[in-house]
Specification:
Length: 427
């Protein structure tokens, strides 16, 4: 027995020595560094407040200042009337409200002449005075999707009031050494319902960011093309005397395969050196997972990975105007995006998909942490998505039923009624 133990120890010792002496002989993509961070700070890089028109239309009445109070540990009252307090205060937070129709709902509810001077705006205001907010929501969403709203969301008079509130709230909450309130917004590009959203994050205070406005995806000064967004970011850094900014894409799983595509958005031409260098420069992070599904891997792409089907949402694009197909998957998930990037590295010497990974919430309640509250308050979000996909049920009944079953599982976990989904999906 003693000899057997000695022999086993010798084998293990030899294996360890061999492992220590064996060196990687290939060319490293990036040399490892021992300069690891020794302090970790916790925060959420993606929260929406009532400044986002969709959040406000779904009932959210809490603004940026309320979010900062909440994440710093104060008790606040949710728009449902519930008293809520975070379990552990955060070290930093990024409020990233939607660029288009930034702060519009508050001006509509107040009867601002910017809104009511338009007949459609006066109509919305009259409905709100009668308590018909659900009808306003339905009409506004449809008109926005059809491009029939009379306001230009890219102009300064549309953006300035809401942006002023955002910047001032961040400045008031920012406490160097204790809490960091980043100034940001979300560039919400949805060409044809395909998700190309980016959180635009500034590394600057109000002295610089107050002089810029969110870059929109529509209107006379906006564009849904990420390359035009990069041009706007370049202009900011050039004109802001040392300002710094970057973009963080998210939810390629809703993009119909164009988040990590092999061609440019507008021209549909293969990437060239200029494109890969610009994307590498402006997009060093990718939001890999959040409330609208995990964006790393898909079981069809990674069949041997038992975790590849974790929190998968692979039914349609953001407007449910297009069903997901197998051909779309490689351009939709970050793992396959990283693989594609290595090929561009070999060709151009630069990787357009070289990014770090972050996770976020994308809560539209101004709050986070209390999962039951977040799920409950996002019923409006779920109902809106189901409404949007209703017309596709004939063609995609099986897929939408599968998606509904996933939502039902979440709802049942928190003891919520399945009536929210069974009306459309007949589960």
């Amino acid at each position: 027995m003693k000899n057997q133990i000695t022999l086993l120890c010798l084998i293990l010792f030899t294996a360890i020595i061999f492992a220590q002496e064996k060196k990687f002989e290939g060319q490293r993509y990036k040399e490892p560094s021992n300069a690891n961070p020794n302090e970790v700070y916790f925060g959420d890089p993606h929260i929406h407040t009532r400044i986002s028109v969709d959040a406000a239309l779904w009932g959210n009445t809490l603004g940026p200042a309320d979010t900062y109070r909440f994440v710093r540990g104060e008790e606040v009252t949710s728009f449902k009337g519930w008293k809520v307090k975070i379990g552990r205060p955060l070290d930093w937070t990024i409020i990233s409200d939607h660029s288009d129709f930034y702060g519009f709902y508050q001006r509509m509810a107040a009867g601002d002449s910017y809104v009511t001077d338009e007949p459609l705006g006066a109509h919305y205001y009259d409905l709100m005075q009668k308590g018909e907010t659900r009808q306003v929501t339905d009409e506004f969403v449809k008109a926005f999707g059809d491009g029939e709203l009379p306001w230009d969301p890219s102009l300064e008079d549309a953006l300035r009031p809401g942006w002023k509130e955002t910047v001032e709230a961040a400045e008031a909450a920012n406490d160097p050494g204790d809490f960091t309130a980043f100034i940001a917004y979300e560039w919400t590009s949805n060409p044809g319902g395909d998700n190309l959203h980016r959180v635009v994050l500034y590394r600057d205070n109000a002295d610089k960011t107050k002089n810029v406005l969110p870059y929109t995806t529509s209107g006379s000064n906006g564009s849904p093309d990420p390359e035009d967004l990069w041009t706007a970011l370049e202009a900011y850094e050039k004109n802001s005397n040392g300002g710094q900014v970057m973009a963080i894409p998210h939810n390629g799983n809703w993009s119909s395969g164009i988040m990590f595509d092999n061609v440019t958005y507008t021209t549909k031409k293969p990437f060239d050196k200029n494109y890969v260098e610009r994307r590498n420069r402006w997009e060093p992070l990718y939001e890999n997972t959040q409330i609208k599904g995990d964006g790393e891997a898909h079981p069809i792409l990674s069949p041997d990975d038992e975790f590849a089907d974790y929190e998968t949402w692979d039914v349609g694009n953001l407007s449910f105007s297009r069903a997901v197909t197998t051909e779309m998957l490689e351009g939709s998930y970050s793992r396959s995006g990283l693989k594609r990037g290595l090929k561009y590295q070999e060709k151009f010497g630069t990787n357009p998909f070289q990014f770090g990974l972050v996770g976020a919430g994308d809560s539209h309640t101004s709050l986070l942490d209390k999962r039951k509250i977040t799920i409950g308050e996002n019923m409006h979000h779920l109902n809106l998505m189901l409404n949007a996909g209703k017309h596709l049920l004939g063609k995609m009944k099986k897929d939408y039923k599968r998606a509904g079953q996933r939502w039902l599982q979440v709802l049942q976990e928190f003891g919520l009624l399945k009536i929210h989904v069974q009306h459309y999906l007949m589960l």
